[in-house]
Design brief:
It contains two helices and four strands; from the N terminus they run ββββαα. It is mainly α. Helix 1 packs across helix 2.
Length: 132
């Protein structure tokens, strides 16, 4: 529902520019006197607004294929959640791998230092088994 007050309707008028071309201009703009004494013409304001649109690739694909707004909303909502979940899983796997490597290194070091010649032989056997 639109709660803004209604804007007065402006009818554009056709004006001739100094280069001879014609354009539409709002009739409410003030007239400007041409330096050569030509009849007054309305002042034309050129306003260029540049704003980079957000990346909405999933929305464009969904809307382009005729899929409804629910799919667009799901893509916008669940897309970042999926990326966050996958990142968390990858971080957890990285931490677990690091802990496994540290534990294995610690076990091998303890076995070598405490076990004497038998421990050294056992550590070599474990190293050979890993290489196979």
């Amino acid at each position: 529902m639109d709660y803004l007050p209604a804007q007065p309707q402006q009818h554009p008028v056709v004006v001739r520019l100094p280069d001879g071309t014609y354009t539409y201009a709002p009739s409410t703009l003030p007239a400007v006197q041409h330096p050569t004494g030509a009849p007054p013409m309305p002042q034309v304001v050129h306003q260029h607004i540049h704003q980079a649109p957000p990346d909405r690739t999933i929305q464009r694909v969904a809307l382009g294929s005729g899929v409804g707004a629910g799919t667009v909303a799901a893509g916008v909502y669940f897309g970042p959640l999926l990326v966050g979940a996958l990142t968390a899983i990858a971080a957890n796997l990285l931490i677990l791998t690091f802990l496994a490597v540290v534990c294995a290194w610690g076990v091998v070091t303890v076995v070598r230092s405490i076990g004497g010649p038998e421990g050294t032989a056992a550590a070599k056997n474990i190293a050979r088994a890993r290489k196979r």
